[in-house]
Amino acid sequence: MTIRQISTRPFPGQRPGTSGLRKKVKVFQQPHYLENFVQSIFDTQNDLAGGILALGGDGRFYNRSAIQTILRMAAAHGISKVIVGRGGILSTPAASCVIRKFRTQGGIILSASHNPGGPDDDFGIKFNVPNGGPAPEKVTEAIYRRSEEITSYRITESPDVDIDRLGTRNLQDMTVEVIDPVQDYTDLLAGLFDFELIRKLLHSGRFRMRFDAMHAVTGPYATHILETLLGAPSGTVINGTPRENFGGGHPDPNLAHATELLEMTRGQRGVDFGAASDGDGDRNMILGRDFFVTPSDSLAVLAANARLVPGYQAGIPGIARSMPTSQAADRVARQLGIDCYETPTGWKFFGNLLDAGKIAICGEESFGTGSHHVREKDGLWAVLFWLNLLAVKQQSVQQILMDHWRQFGRNFYTRHDYEGINSRIAGELIDDLRGQLPGLPGRELEGYTVEYADDFSYTDPVDGSVSDNQGLRIGFTDGSRIVFRLSGTGTEGATLRVYIEAFEPDPQRHLLQTASVLAPLAKVAEQLAGIEKRTGRAAPDVIT
Ligand code: VG1
Ligand code: CO
After folding, report:
1. Residue after which a domain boundary falls, among 408, 437, 465
2. pLDDT score at 96
3. Which end of the chain is more exposed for a tag (fewer CB within 10 A), N or C?
């Protein structure tokens, strides 16, 4: 067979961020750019040669051409078989499912998640390890170090592989197996939830829902599961046809971007339940009629009610949340008498806890929720979990939340994002804040007394690895909190995230406006960080 060895030089900055390597498509299109990173994966993951690799992506622009490049390189590297989703498609949770089910030596997922797609927008690649989860830091660091010293890569000279027909074919000595991207994932979810009960709810005539696939990867998954299997009326899934540029939108399920869905849940004629997922299918947004469920609350509600769902009937050993996620889940864990872990931002930190059986449910404030069924967050899983709960409880989304808050208290929560700010200014802002931290405990600010202030450092309870500098936390004596951190997923400048939460035990106050409850703390955040003075921004770009 013809394998070519191509000389190359390192590209600076192929360091994976919160969730893989994300750059503009134009960056990925430079000769050797993608190849260098893929070869760095192959060179550092010794079990891949002679092993099996799962491969797929969210279908955005450049997905198909990247798949062909990776297949040629995999053949040249001596990988025995690549399992690829038809059309090059695998949602992130489906990829995780496939890696686990077929015991592959890892997987490559092509996605920039919720970032816009198209020739002028974003692309991404990430490596998942054999447990199905994103590579832990020591693996991403090894890949990055390799990318800094690479001098050549290997690739076959061969025509494109047909990835649009199911079945097995050869690329020189390697087998390429094209699978239905939806089937294995659907089977897994069907084993966790009470599909019969959900079907009854959807047929009761008293319940209407919409799922917004945002022209991204979950279209075929949601249509198959919700409409075909569960019998929801056709039209339940909106924007269900995946597009390479997501129809020009941000495939980001939040109040700022899923506005069409939001409208459908409004007023007397609004639907009872609205949900959306992101570009690669791992995020979810949950809406009731005229009601938004914060992702932090969603995590707490799912954990508190897990026993009502077949897959979690025996109860859960523990919960984990990322550091900036609200402490609502902690309160649930306390009442259930189980552990709650606080991890740095990014799904990779949940992997060890899930593998060790310390937790079964975990989540992030950024519209991510998931469980031990895969090792990624899972948008449709969360939607089905909610549908299962709604079917069991026969209550509205709002009623479920009101009951939850009455039992556990309410953690009011918001995140303010300042996007595309100058990287140097953002760095200085964080450095200056870090310098202020030691002087904060005991100080009173707008009526709140600082209890602790630190730069979050995490020691993995399973392997002891330490991750420093994971965000600045300022906690107040009444349980309120402000967190500052810089995004690790952007492709232009820096994004500053400010996370604000306040605890409210009094049910009389649970329906107050979030913005007004959190206004004094937002003022404190501004006083401490001087965001407007430094960046010229008087208000955040996105509030969720
Ligand atoms: C953001 C979120 C984080 C999430 C990450 C990947 O990271 O805040 O919670 O894990 O995106 O999500 P950052 O570093 O920009 O804050 V996604 O849906 O890749 O898939
Ligand atoms: Co995503």
Report:
1. 408
2. 98
3. N
pLDDT < 50: residue spans in the chain: none
Which residues is 85 bridged to in the sheet? 179
Q: What pLDDT does 317 receive? A: 97
Helix, strand, coil % (nearest 5) of the chain? 35, 25, 40
Q: Cα(397)–Cα(420) distance, rounded to whole angstroms?
A: 35
Per-residue model confidence (pLDDT) at position 1 = 64
Per-residue pLDDT of 190-205, as tens digits, reads 999 999 999 999 999 9
Judge if 252 and 384 occupy the same domain: yes
Give yes or no: residues 364 and 453 share one domain: no
CB 345 within 8 A of CB 323: yes
How many domains, the chain?
3
Domain of 100? Answer: 2-181
pLDDT of res. 494: 94
Residue 19 — φ and ψ, nearest 5°? -145, 65
Is residue 111 among the annotated active site residues? no
pTM for this predicted structure: 0.95
> Which residues does 531 contact at the CB level (< 8 Å), separation at least 6?
418, 429, 496, 498, 525, 537
Ligand 1 center to residue 489 CA distance, Å?
Answer: 6
Near ion ligand 2, which residues have CB within 5 Å?
113, 278, 280, 282-283
Are 151 and 203 part of one and the same domain? Answer: no
Q: How far is the CA of 79 from the centre of ligand 2 (A)?
A: 28
The answer on 56 and 167 residing in a single domain is: yes
Please name the residues in contact with 316: beta carbons below 8 A apart, sequence gap of 6 or more: 303, 306, 336, 338, 359, 360, 361
Contact assessment for residue 210 and residue 236, using Cβ atoms and an 8 Å cutoff: yes
Same domain, 416 and 462: yes
Please check whether residues 249 and 358 belong to one and the same domain.
yes
Q: Quick count: other Cβ atoms within 10 Å of Cβ 308?
A: 16
Looking at 40, 113, 298, 371, which residue is catalytic?
113
**353 and 241 assigned to the same domain:** yes
CATH number of the domain residue 27 falls in: 3.40.120.10
Nearest residue (by CA) to ligand 1, atom 1, is 489
Q: Is there a contact between 125 and 92 (Cβ–Cβ < 8 Å)?
A: no
CATH number of residue 497's parent domain: 3.30.310.50
Domain boundary among 355, 374, 408: 408
CA distance 182 to 228: 12
Q: What was the pLDDT predicted at 509?
A: 93
Q: Are the CB atoms for 285 and 252 separated by under 8 Å?
A: no
Residue with tokens 């639907």: 271
- Are β-strands 472-476 and 448-455 bridged in parallel, bridged antiparallel, or unpaired? antiparallel
Q: Which of 101, 256, 96, 79 is nearest to 170 (CA)?
A: 79
Please indicate, yes or no, whether residues 134 and 193 belong to a single structural domain of this protein: no
